[in-house]
Design a protein that fits this description.
By secondary structure, this protein is mainly β. It is built from eight helices and 41 strands. Strands 1, 2, 3, 5, 6 and 9 form a six-stranded antiparallel β-sheet that branches. It has a five-stranded mixed β-sheet with strand order 38-39-40-37-41, covered by helices on one side. The radius of gyration is 66 Å and the shape is elongated.
Length: 599
């Protein structure tokens, strides 16, 4: 009924104010969709220009439509207010051209009043035929069917808030009250239409409690273009509908050796609420506590926050035997090659233990020993220990098969020679016999451990030679042969050692020895390779005393001559009438048996 009355009033105002409404009502929005009043324009043959400015809404998209380009060509459009919205030709680059009409869109700035100018050579002919039926300015970005201009009515009704009673949000939604109002509150006016963008917040109990659960009132106010005011009490309800979170593993393994209490298991869980923080819990199902045997046991816990949001978490606890059995006896065995044990006998000697199982099974994985038990060497037996929970431990047994019997070494224990006999060690070794129970050895493996004959200080006497032999196991046997050297020669006269007397201030070298021997015709006048064998004189050159000096001479044919000298360093305080003052040595040759004297 109200809409019928408004329509009648619109018609009466249209009839009564036809000549002056552009001026009287230009500050108001029209009562219908079309903003263009034909009486508000001046028409010429080639232009249409608005008389009074046209009020438009701020920040609103508008569409102006006019006849199609095939009816009106080269149309220039100017739309301006405080801002220039359009200026230039109506063309496809800036507008949309169809067979029926052409339309251009623009968006207003702040509150503005528009002037509209259109120029075209065809306007006179067009207006004579079509009048003003295809010209329209309307809200939105699409063209609708033509609507006649309806002048504004005098507005005495207050606007109304529509489709809004309360706004419900959550504590973790930080949406501002401004966004809530702009996106969810609608204000409608019977004259101005949707004026939701004019809603203001008069009182706000919500903003300071955005993240706090509760109910908060927000007082809103709206004023239409004719200063009619309406208020609305918006209720904002902040709720916590997010359930608590229980975080933990869905299955837990514990050792049967150390079964923890249920509360100790749950203490590792996280039981929190985003709003309330940490929460307590209650156990709703417990098949685990007081268990001592292996198995899987179900447990459920529950928690509730201050908003009665509930969370239930179920998990299982597996009590397991996870410890492997162990070998407590030694894993190293040693046997003599003559007396070994079988693998089965060795396995029977092993001692094992397990934390849970009463019986431990021993499996042989690999056996190097049993096929080689009669051969000296180190062998390995790989075994596995298996308990009743199928826990496996691997061990390696070490079996040392050893040779405990040393080799034998035998032969003559006493040999006698004349003191001039050249005793060859090799000939004595050939008289010996060797054998071993395991290793293959022969005479070539015999070696000399000690030899008194090589270091003898007398020509006759008893001298021990100790021989030895090793088998492949490192076992050694020794055998001693006593060599008796006897004097089986008649006395003879011979020239023995040279006694060289020398002053403390001069020295004696092997070159001096070579000169003396050449002088006494014991060596020919040729080249010799000279080597000092014994030199007690060295280091005592200036100390009075008697020193042995043995020299080896080797001629070009490889013949070797060994000569002994006794060097007597004289005390320079004594009278040396027998010495040549120039320091030349005097050689005294003694005929007969000479016994060398040591200092």
């Amino acid at each position: 009924m109200k809409r019928m009355i408004i329509l009648i009033v619109f018609m009466m105002m249209t009839i009564g104010l036809n000549d002056v409404q552009g001026t009287l009502l230009s500050s108001k929005l029209p009562g219908g969709k079309n903003y263009l009043d034909e009486d508000n324009f001046v028409f010429t043959n080639d232009s249409i220009i608005s008389i009074d400015s046209i009020k438009v809404k701020p920040f609103t998209e508008y569409t102006i439509s006019l006849p199609s380009s095939h009816l009106l060509e080269e149309v220039v459009l100017n739309i301006f207010g405080d801002t220039d919205y359009f200026s230039g030709l109506v063309r496809e680059a800036d507008c949309t051209l169809t067979d029926v009409n052409s339309f251009c869109t623009f968006t207003t700035a702040n509150d503005d009043y528009l002037t509209i100018e259109l120029y075209s050579e065809m306007f006179g002919l067009y207006y004579t035929y079509y009048k003003f039926d295809l010209f329209m300015l309307e809200e939105g970005n699409v063209v609708t069917e033509y609507e006649v201009y309806i002048p504004p009515l005098l507005d005495t009704n207050s606007p109304e808030f529509a489709n809004t009673g309360a706004y419900i949000t959550t504590y973790n939604d930080s949406t501002s009250i401004e966004n809530i109002v702009s996106n969810h509150v609608t204000a409608l006016d019977d004259i101005d239409g949707d004026i939701s963008d004019l809603v203001i917040i008069k009182e706000d109990n919500y903003t300071l409690n955005t993240g706090i659960v509760g109910e908060y009132s927000v007082l809103l106010e709206i004023e239409d273009n004719n200063h009619n005011i309406a208020t609305f009490d918006l209720l904002v309800i902040v709720k916590d509908e997010i359930p608590p979170v229980i975080t933990g593993p869905s299955s837990i393994d514990v050792n049967v050796n150390n079964i923890p209490l249920l509360e100790d298991v749950i203490s590792e869980f996280s039981i929190t609420d985003e709003y309330d923080g940490p929460l307590m819990y209650t156990v709703t199902e417990d098949n685990y506590s007081n268990q001592t045997s292996t198995g899987d046991y179900n447990v459920s816990i529950e928690t509730t926050d201050s908003s009665n949001n509930k969370a239930i978490f179920s998990f299982s606890i597996a009590i397991e035997d996870i410890d492997v059995p162990s070998l407590i006896s030694s894993s190293i065995f040693e046997y003599s090659v003559e007396n070994t044990s079988s693998t089965t006998e060795i396995i029977n000697l092993l001692e094992t233990e397990d934390n849970y199982s009463e019986q431990v099974l021993i499996n042989i994985v690999n056996d190097q020993y049993n096929p080689n038990r009669s051969v000296v060497g180190t062998y390995f037996i790989d075994i596995e220990l298996l308990d009743e929970s199928n826990n496996v431990a691997s061990y390696t047994l070490t079996i040392n098969v050893v040779d405990s019997i040393p080799p034998t070494l035998s032969g003559p224990s006493t040999l006698q020679y004349g003191y001039q006999h050249e005793v060859a060690i090799e000939s004595i070794i050939e008289m010996l016999e060797v054998s071993d129970n395991v290793s293959i050895i022969d005479i070539s493996d015999v070696y000399v451990i000690s030899n008194e004959l090589s270091n003898k200080v007398t020509k006759t006497g008893e001298f021990n030679i100790v021989f030895g032999v090793l088998d492949e196991s490192g076992l050694e046997t020794t055998f001693t042969v006593k060599i008796i050297l006897v004097d089986d020669q008649l006395p003879i006269i011979f020239v023995d050692d040279y006694i060289v007397k020398i002053n403390q201030n001069v020295t004696f070298t092997h070159q001096d020895a070579l000169k003396l021997l050449r002088h006494s015709n014991q060596l020919t006048d040729e080249d010799y390779e000279v080597k000092t064998l014994i030199n007690e004189y060295e280091g005592n050159e200036h100390i009075p005393g008697m020193y042995l000096y043995q020299v080896q001479f080797k001629d070009l044919n490889g013949n070797i001559i060994v000569k002994d000298f006794v060097i007597e360093v004289l005390d320079e305080k004594e009278n040396y009438t027998s010495l040549i003052t120039s320091g030349v040595v005097i050689v005294v040759v003694v005929i007969g048996v000479f016994i060398k004297k040591r200092k």
